[in-house]
Every structure is written in structure tokens, then in C-alpha cells.
Amino acid sequence: MSDVLISRSEGAVRVLVNHNPAARNALSPEYYAALRQALAAAAADADVGAVVLTGANHYFCSGGDLNQLALRRELPQSERRERIEALHETVRTIRRCPKPVIAAVDGGAAGAGVSIALACDLLVMAEDAYLSLAYVKVGLSPDGGATAFLSEFMPRQLLAELVLTGDRIPTQRLAGLGVVNRVAAPGGAEQEAVALARRLAQGPQRAMARIKALSLSAYRNRVESQLDAEADRMAESLGDAESTEGIRAFFDKRAADFASLRKVS
Questions:
Q1: Lowest CB count within 10 Å: 108, 113, 145, 195, which one?
Q2: CATH 1.10.12.10 applies to domain 205-261
């Protein structure tokens, strides 16, 4: 894709590697643009069933480049905000991707790297990894949706502690809060995430896209609105070839072959 993003395929899994090892995979406008492009390509590719986001050299992401952030201080506030929108549109793209997106966090994720990881549908972390929202230590406040995502898992007092102290949050504490889906051996998050992605990639892709949309809307919809959304998606699914295959396989007492339906419009 580009110098800052390496894309490779492992069967039906698309692995997207943040590649800026000299700066511990710090984020940049070039990375945001490349990631959005790569996710759009994965979404449009019928041979891709799931996506894994990871970082080079066993480190997920060190967050924003402070050298670049220091330069932005000289810009008018409207332009500073416009630069932040590049991150936020990337977060939106991850969440809108119809394919399951899994973050594989080896080493650590800091700053906006936390937002990128938490925007994913599933999170795999090495047991010695951490998340760090240390914005406060340099006089900044969080962006990228990190506070919104963490608020889904924890009470207000704990969220306040994490963002006001900027302390590292170890994997085990996050796992206890339900933030982490799989805990891997040190250096093994990517391998674990790819294995999980392979499993998801064999599933009914259109049904999973509907499930992903419902899972996201559940946090903002009232019950009646969510009931309507679920009814719409179920009606769509019942008319889809995926449910025809899934129900037939159930009665035939065999594994459903959803992969053969990927290119069915």
C-alpha cells in the first residue's frame, strides 16, 4: 500500500501493518489515508473475510507524533481541528467496515493508538502489553473516541483515573474489565488475532456485517429503535442465500459452506 502501511493476505484474512518502526509506529496523516484506503479495498474484496490491524516490530502504536503536534500549535484552531478530523474519519472507517476488524496489540498502544485499537470489533493483547492514555502528561486531552469506547466498559470514576493520571493500563486489568477478547503470550498477539480472524472469515459475511451494525447501534439506540433495527436486519437475512445455506446445512447435519457464497450478489 505505502511505506507506512504494509498489507498482506493470509488466506481470507487481510493483515494491515502500521509500519513506522523508527518512531514505534507513530501515527501520521499518511498512515490515516493509507489505512482508510486499505480498509475500503478489504471491504470491496469478496475474498477477504476479516481484517487484522497490527504494528511492526511487535509494537502496536505509540500514538501521535509529538514533533508534528508541536508544529500544529502554530496553526489557527480551525486548522488544528481539521487535522484531528483525519484521525476521526479513520476511526469511523474502522467501525463502518462491513468485515470484522481485529486489533492485535503486542508491546503497547498509546494515545490515538488506543483509539485505533478500541475502534476495532475485537481486541487481542499480549499478556505483557498495555494501553496508555498519557495525554495529560503533555498537557493534552484525548481524541479519537478513546473516552467514548472506554466508557462502554467501565464506571466514570475508573475512566477518570485512567485519563487523569495517564498511567499504563496492563492487559490483565483490561481483561478483567472485559475490554480484551483474547490474551496471548508475549509477542503472540498477531498470531492469535490471525487465528481468530481465520475463524470469522469462514462465516456468513453479509450476516456478520448486519450483526456488526446492530452491535454498534445497540449502544446508542433505545430499545424500541433497536427492536426496529433488529427486525429489519432479520428480514434481510431471511431473504439471503446465506441463511438458505445455513438452515439447509443444519438439517443436513453438516458444516455450512458460506465461503462459496462470497461472490454471490
A1: 195
A2: yes
